[in-house]
Amino acid sequence: MGARQTSLWRMPARKTAAILTGCLFLFILSCGDGGDSAGRSAPRPGPESFTFFDIGRNSMFSDSMRSELAGSLGNDAIEHRSIVDLEFNYKGFLSNHLPELDAINRQLNFPPGERIDHDVIRLMYRYARQRNAPFDYVELIFDGQSRRPLVFRLRFRVDETGTVESLREKYGTPETIRWEVDAGESLVWRKERDVLAVSLVPDQFGTPIYHITLYFTENLENLLASEQALNDRTSREKSQSKKSAF
Predict the structure, then answer these.
(1) Is the peptide bond before 111 cis (omega within 30 degrees of 0)?
(2) Going edge to edge, which strands form the sheet with 194-202?
(3) Positions of E strands within the chain
(4) Domain hosting residue 37, numbered range
(5) Residue 15 pLDDT
(6) Rounded (to 5) percent helix, strand, coil in the chain
(7) Domain count of the chain?
(8) Burial of 191 by CB count in 10 Å (0-12 exposed, 13-18 middle, 19+ buried)?
(9) Which of 83, 130, 160, 190 is the most exposed place for a label (fewest CB within 10 A)?
């Protein structure tokens, strides 16, 4: 896979149709430094890092945002409680290469081996190509309380619009992480502590699939802090209830 993968990373944009060029422009515009469009979020408390369809670390989920996303990506499936597993590529990748995210992931999924559901909003899009968006699957996870974005995941089989090379041009040379398995590689950009990662992940037939993942680190930490505060408050209330009963 190594030689083939190198050629895929370097593959030029295939401008075979105007709609694909439009999608490329939309994606690159939305992965830039710009903030949220009017009505989407509260005033921005800090600088943006990476955004997708103009949704960034300071955006807040709303019905209008969901409606706009449906116009771009098609109908969604939604979950209101779910696990939040940050691992990607293969088990152990975070601990080996992104320890700051691995530490958060361990706290999100403690105790290990148990299903830990969180108060989140998970949107899943499987028919984006019917709206001429160059993605086979899109998953957006928001904090159910703060409504801030936590993790975005995108998948597609062919880089029809030259997304990877455009990201290189926009953000500069990424950190290249060579996997310990499958001779794979990941490209990683960091900005404002957030992480944008692009990987070629082989499917069950060995065919590589592009995976793009955005981690909003501070928002993930805030989720953990709010959950800990809730647990502490619940523990105090239970303790006080026991004392008052006797």
Answers:
(1) yes
(2) 77-82, 118-125, 137-143, 149-156, 208-215, 194-202, 185-191, 175-178
(3) 77-82, 118-125, 137-143, 149-156, 175-178, 185-191, 194-202, 208-215
(4) 2-245
(5) 45
(6) 35, 25, 40
(7) 1
(8) middle
(9) 130
What secondary structure does DSSP assign to 16-61, as a single string? -SHHHHHHHHHHHHHTSS--PPTTSSSPPSS-----BTTB-TT---
Residue 48 to residue 143: CA distance in whole angstroms = 17
Kindly report the pTM of this predicted structure: 0.81
CA separation for the pair 190, 13 (Å, rounded): 24
pLDDT, residue 161, reads 84
Q: Are 76 and 66 in contact (CB under 8 A)?
A: yes
Question: Of 174, 110, 120, which Cα lies nearest the Cα of 145?
Answer: 120
Q: Do you know the residue count of the chain?
A: 246
Distance CA(223)–CA(226), nearest Å, equals 5
Task: Tell the residue number behind the tokens 């953000």, with chain if given.
Answer: 171
Compute the chain's Rg from CA coordinates: 19
Tokens of 100: 């700051």
How many other CB atoms are found less than 10 A from the CB of residue 236? 10
